[in-house]
Amino acid sequence: MVALRCLYLIALIFWVGGMVALGALGAPAVFDVLEAHHGLGGRIEAGAVFGEMLRRFRFFDYGSATVLLGCLVALYRRTPRPTALGIRIVTVVAMLGVSLYAGFGITGQIEAVQVDIQNTVASLGDNSQFAARFDSLHALTTSLLLLNLGGGLSLIYWEARARIA
Among 36, 143, 161, 150, which Cα is nearest to 45's? Predict the structure, then answer.
C-alpha cells in the first residue's frame, strides 16, 4: 500500500511539475530567446520548438495519468472507505480527458493554422484571420493547461491534508 501511494505521488508530482516547467519556464524562455535573435522568424521557430516540447510531453502526460489511475484503482480495491479515492480517480480521469482533447483535438488544428500563416506570410498576403484563429486556439490550450494544473494541485493538496489508507 505504501509503495502504491509513493508511486502515485511521484507520478502526480512529475505531471504537475512538467506542466509548470513547460508553461512557466520553457515557453517563455524559448520565445524570448528566439524572438530576440530572429524577430518574427524566431517567433515561428519558437512555436515549432515549443510545439515539439509539448508533443514529447504528451507521452509523459499520458503515462503519468496511467500510473496515477493504476495506483488509485489498486488502492480503491484495498481501502475500506473508497469515497476519497473515488474523487481522486474522477479528477485524474478528467485531467486525462482534458490532456487527450488538447493533444488530439487541438494540436492538429494549431499545426494547420501555423501552416496557413506561414503560407500567407510567404506570399505577403493578409494572415489576420489565421492569426486570430491561432490566438483563440492558443488561449484554449492555455486554459486547458491551467485547468489540468488546478486539478493536479488539488490532488497534491488532498494528499497533503489526508492519507490514502
Answer: 36
Other beta carbons less than 10 A from residue 97's beta carbon: 12
Residue-wise pLDDT tens digits, 27-40: 999 999 998 998 87
Average pLDDT over residues 108-127: 70
Say if residues 127 and 121 touch (Cβ distance below 8 Å): yes
Listed by start position, the domains of the chain span 2-161
CB-neighbour burial class of residue 149 (10 A; exposed 0-12, middle 13-18, buried 19+): middle
DSSP-derived secondary structure letter, 40: H
The predicted-structure confidence for 125-147, as pLDDT tens digits, reads as follows 556 777 788 889 889 999 999 99
* Whether 58 contacts 22, CB under 8 Å: no
The length of the chain is 165
Q: Model's pTM, two decimal places?
A: 0.84
Rounded Cα distance between 132 and 108, Å, is 16
CB 101 within 8 A of CB 70: no
